[in-house]
Give the backbone structure.
Amino acid sequence: MSELTDRLYLRKCSLVVGGDGTGLELGDLRISFATQHADFETPNRADIRIYNLSEETARRVQKEFTRVVLQAGYEGNFGLVFGGSVRQVRRGREAGTDTYLDILAADGDRAYNYAVVNATLASGATVRDQADVALGSLADHGVATGHIPDLGGEALPRGKVMYGMARKYMRDAAETSATTWSIQNGAAQMIPVQGYSPGEAISLTAQTGLIGQPEQTNEGIRVRALLNPRFRVGGRIKLDNASILRFKTELRSGAFDKAPRLDDDGLYRILAIDLRGDTRGPDWYADLICVGIDDSAPVGSKLRDTNGGR
């Protein structure tokens, strides 16, 4: 079980905006950000605000740069929290004195929107073979292949023509293999609906970054912690079940069935991560939604992908 043995102090942040082999490090300026990561196929996003850029630098960001790489954490625990494409840049003024530049970025959205499959599989092809064709198309648009588990399934009894959006074939492979698929920091991954991605569980206590009391809700176990770049969608955390505020039962039949159960060993899979940070302000935390290792996402979860049917 992995714990943070170093004190969580001395915040650290790096923001690189770049494109065509050039880039600028803007981490020395005041930066605030909010990132959203979740275990569904719609691309993750980041809203980043940079304060008091020079006029020349602001123009360069607007005209020249197409990608952002955001790293954050603490001295001794620092790493990537978001990487993606710049989708929109806006300039404004705050409180009459400070100027700002807002960047809206998305992770893998070009691949999600434009990657097309055009291939034929021979009889005997597996679910993994079908996923590999779609993953190849995503790779052509800049998305690497991350963790893919054993997808199992029966071999195709006859050949199959694959033509259409890569995301549709990834969705089909996920449904067939009881997994989910998503793009996380530039890599496509698949996670069993009752499993997790490789790596040690992060033990969360008041001493290792837990803020307040975790809560059992109909969306999952809600947890707030200090910002930690090691949190990953599909990864695990460990909680003391005694510290979790239990779900409030309504007085009607079946109401408690909507709440996810507590894992016997206190191990929970991360379904969603919202990060908020401000290098000159109080925000520097992560909000997590988790479920027990042997549970799938709750039926009433707001994490359901509203674009998944397209």
User: Anything to note?
Assistant: The longest helix spans residues 127-140. Residues 202-292 form one domain.
